[in-house]
């Protein structure tokens, strides 16, 4: 131990110091100084260091707990969002299927209504054709009858005397009146 004290306090190197002095030998004093500093730090700093480490440990544990809670919350939100997404996809598919069904239904309704309109137009066309044919037939009949009547009158005029001629005209007029009532 004498070497330790001698190396720490040496009066021979400091001539003006008297009873107290410092050793300037760096190799001899560094391990001693370090051991004293470490000893003091361990003795006095053990409580502070353990408090610091405990506080750090608590903060880390709290951070981990908070992270776990946030993770669980994020998982719940993700599950809710996934459920909403699935619901939205099902609704979209339903709208798509309903849309296609509605389009198909509208297409068939349009085809059917077009077919009905075409059928009505065909009926109108046939009725118009039939009406025009009937009108043409009536016009032809009227002309034929007028020509026949004129021919008969011509023949009668050349063959009949005046009295017979007047009776024939009167009978024909009666007949024409009856025919006119039938055609009207």
Quick summary:
With 184 residues, the protein is mainly alpha-helical.
Structural descriptors:
3 helices; mainly alpha; 89% helix; 0% strand; 184 residues
What does this structure look like?
There is one protein chain. The protein is built from 3 helices and no strands. The model is unreliable at 1-5 and 7-17 (pLDDT under 50). By secondary structure, it is mainly α. The protein has helices at residues 2-8, 26-159, 162-183.
Furnish the topology, listing elements before pairings.
Blueprint: H1 2-8, H2 26-159, H3 162-183
User: If you compute it from the alpha carbons, what radius of gyration comes out, rounded to the nearest whole angstrom?
Assistant: 66 Å
Largest sheet: none
SSE class = mainly alpha
Say how many strands there are. 0
Q: In whole angstroms, how far apart are the ends?
A: 159 Å
Percentage of residues assigned to helices = over 70%
Count the helices. How many?
3
On the 0 to 100 scale, the average pLDDT is: 81
What is the H/E order?
Answer: HHH
Strand content: under 5%
Low-confidence stretches: 1-5, 7-17
Which word captures the global form? rod-shaped
């Amino acid at each position: 131990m004498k070497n330790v004290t001698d190396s720490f306090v040496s009066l021979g190197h400091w001539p003006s110091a008297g009873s107290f002095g410092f050793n300037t030998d760096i190799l001899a004093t560094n391990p001693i100084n370090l051991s004293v500093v470490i000893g003091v730090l361990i003795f006095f700093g053990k409580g502070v260091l353990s408090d610091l480490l405990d506080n750090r440990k608590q903060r880390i544990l709290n951070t981990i707990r908070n992270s776990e809670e946030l993770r669980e919350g994020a998982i719940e939100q993700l599950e809710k969002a996934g459920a909403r997404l699935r619901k939205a996809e099902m609704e979209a598919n339903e709208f798509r299927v309903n849309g296609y069904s509605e389009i198909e239904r509208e297409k068939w309704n349009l085809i059917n209504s077009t077919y009905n309109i075409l059928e009505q137009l065909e009926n109108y066309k046939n009725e118009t054709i039939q009406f025009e044919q009937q009108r043409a037939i009536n016009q032809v009949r009227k002309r034929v009858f007028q020509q026949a009547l004129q021919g008969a009158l011509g023949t009668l005029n050349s063959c009949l005397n005046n009295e017979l001629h007047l009776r024939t005209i009167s009978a024909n007029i009666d007949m024409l009146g009856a025919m006119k009532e039938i055609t009207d």
